[in-house]
């Protein structure tokens, strides 16, 4: 790994084309969308998606890209609605992404063509919704069910996503009943009847959002404080990377992570 891999859009684009388009990526905790019409919208490594709960209780992960002119249909991070009306010209889609209609001046010329939002392969694993652009990717496994959901803390970090991953992995042995890494974007810590899922969301090459999903406990100030410490640690590490201070591959997990990144870069060149 080189300092520029943490500070340039080129590296991020390579990661989008290879790593993020071929792996299962976490989207949200299933419990964040408990009732019909609930949705969460986010952009993960350049892929913009909406996770929805329909009236039959089913979950869909849809590309947030209107079939009229490829603009984002949903412009808010979450909420509840009966259907999605594109902000730009009013094309409307149901909670499974099915095209419902459009104002006459911008209606599709050929109604026989499929204008539905693109539904991506998705699975729910231990209460976490994952999606993939490649249905052949190896499915994630998080082990036994997690305890009841207690809330999510959102932290924006001014650092490259790989710094956040490295901070989570540094010095940690893989012990499935204590710490599990579900690369490239999720870490699970278990302690007795409690568990924390750290979901890393690469926004841009220098902006990362961290979702800390708390299970077996209510998300509270102690969790917020821990997330705040994580934020300052990662932002300090990002400054170090810019100055050439690279991480030491001091654990199997960290070495494996770097191998996967290097393979992704090699695959995109
Ligand atoms: S881009 Fe969505 S309605 Fe035109």
Q: Distance N terminus to C terminus?
A: 15 Å
User: How helical, in percent, are the residues?
Assistant: 10-25%
The helix count comes to 5
Taking all residues together, what is the mean pLDDT? 93
Biggest pleated sheet:
5 strands, antiparallel
Task: Write up what this structure looks like.
- This protein starts with 8 loop residues before the first helix and ends with a helix.
- By secondary structure, the protein is an alpha+beta fold.
- The longest helix is centred in the last third of the chain and has 22 residues, at 221-242.
- Helix 1 crosses helix 5.
- The model has no long low-confidence stretch (mean pLDDT 93).
- Strand 3 and strand 4 (59-63) form a beta hairpin.
- It contains five helices and 15 strands.
- Bound molecules: FE2/S2 (inorganic) cluster.
- FE2/S2 (inorganic) cluster (FES) is lined by residues 66, 68-69, 71, 86, 88-91.
List keywords for this structure.
269 residues, alpha+beta, five-stranded antiparallel sheet, four-stranded antiparallel sheet, 30% strand, globular, binds FE2/S2 (inorganic) cluster
Summarize the topology:
Layout: H1 9-17, H2 19-22, E1 25-29, E2 38-44, E3 47-53, E4 59-63, E5 78-80, E6 84-85, E7 92-93, E8 99-101, E9 122-125, E10 128-131, E11 149-157, H3 161-169, E12 179-182, E13 186-191, E14 194-204, E15 207-215, H4 221-242, H5 252-268
Antiparallel strand pairs: 1-10, 2-3, 2-5, 3-4, 6-7, 7-8, 9-10, 11-15, 12-13, 13-14, 14-15
